[in-house]
Amino acid sequence: MTKEKIVSIGALVLVLGGAAALGFWGYKNKPLVAPSVATVNGTAIGQSAFDTQLASVIASLKTQGVDTENADNLAQIKTQVLNDLINNELVLQGVTKAGITVADTDVETQFQRLLTEAGGADQLKAQLAGAGQTEAQFRANIAKQLAIQAYLLQNIDISTATVTDEEAKTFYDTNVKTQANAPAYKDVVDQIKQQIIADKQQILVNAFIASLRERATVETTI
């Protein structure tokens, strides 16, 4: 079982650039603070971080055929994005408190793996440009993800996320067999087991983050 499987982007949305509030001096030298959507244990999550993440999620959902202009759908999307940002901040604060650091060699190993998956340097560069990211930001994001993985593994016993043959067969009969041109069970059983384990790991992650939130001071403004 690899460490990469423990993190779900849906649960832990990583926002490049952070969400720290920016201060400046305005009229009559009164301090003004950039608008925020929430504070987590006193740390602000900026409106700009929320807007950026919301735009990214909406763009992704549109490609999946989701009607993001529907008022109810949009309200749910905004709520989910806000919760994801809050959860992400809680975990990052936990990483800092635990003093977790990531070696440059580990970041480089992960970067090279993602570089290969992207199809090479030119393809990765194009993907980063499309996402408005630099390579430095991408590497920083990799380091952040690796730190989060290490933190979660310190606090969650993922060995409890197991799957039986009966569970896999039930999943196949319910979700795969009923589809047109469904593959044979023996051809997809390994993927099914991996999916079930990932789902169970996600439940563990969600429960741990919920426990962090119960002990945190969270205020929202939207």
Automatic annotation (TrEMBL):
Protein's name in the database: PpiC domain-containing protein
InterPro entries found in the cross-reference section: PrsA_foldase, Trigger_fact/SurA_dom_sf
UniProt xrefs under Pfam families: SurA_N_3
High-level lineage: Bacteria, Candidatus Zambryskiibacteriota
